[in-house]
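Hey all, quick one. A colleague (J.T.) asked me to put the magnesium ion job into the tracker so the inputs and the structure tokens live in one place instead of scattered across chat threads. No bug as far as I know, just bookkeeping. Sequence used:
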Amino acid sequence: MLNVVIFGAPGSGKGTQSERLIDEYGLHHISTGEVLRDHISRGTELGHIADSYISKGQLIPDDLMVKVLAAVLDENPEKTAGGVIFDGFPRTVPQAEALKKMLADRGTKVHAVVGLEVPEDELVRRMLQRGKDTGRADDNLDTITNRLKVYHSQTSPLREYYINEGKYHAIDGSGEVDRIFNDIKSRLDGAK
Ligand code: AP5
Ligand code: MG
């Protein structure tokens, strides 16, 4: 079993690399951003709440987000048994503590954290391009600026948190998708 947190700023390639890792390691992918966007598109109550934060580039409050993640984990016990890629969770230190407890209660843990490190101008370029290509609602300059601000103030402290736990693997996340994937793979194979 391998539980991996894929970590990085908005636009750093978490979703892109997760797709590749699923195939390579047979992991179950949980993207909290995708879970929330699915609720928004279905017009659920959670979707309405999530939309009010996502459209401003703010984080959904920790207590709600932790409940959402626990529900997703328990929805598919047979799919998560082989291991999970957590994409976009945790995003705050309290979320990291909650994940540690959630996994310990289920007899497991985070085995490795893959940190995709990409210069800020490249992040902005990627998200603006995706905004044009796909119309993703939070890929506009105002919201991107706030997402990056929130990342620096609330999420980036987790880098230190996981370095202290001896789990953080820094990956240069700019350049070819294949090269980045191979770098991740060699770090994960070494961590197993
Ligand atoms: P979320 O959906 O997680 O968005 P994000 O973190 O802002 O990250 P993105 O999905 O934009 O980027 P990514 O790192 O997945 O990169 P991707 O592979 O797509 O969260 C959205 C919102 O939901 C949050 O702002 C928050 O409001 C809320 N939320 C979610 N989780 C939460 C939580 N735990 N707590 C509270 N709130 C939460 O790549 C980006 C683009 O670049 C793509 O177009 C891709 O094709 C391209 N690309 C990828 N790799 C490369 C490369 N190597 N070279 C060139 N282009 C590349
Ligand atoms: Mg993503």
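Adding what we noticed when we looked at it: Residues 55 and 138 are 6 Å apart (CA to CA). The radius of gyration is 16 Å.
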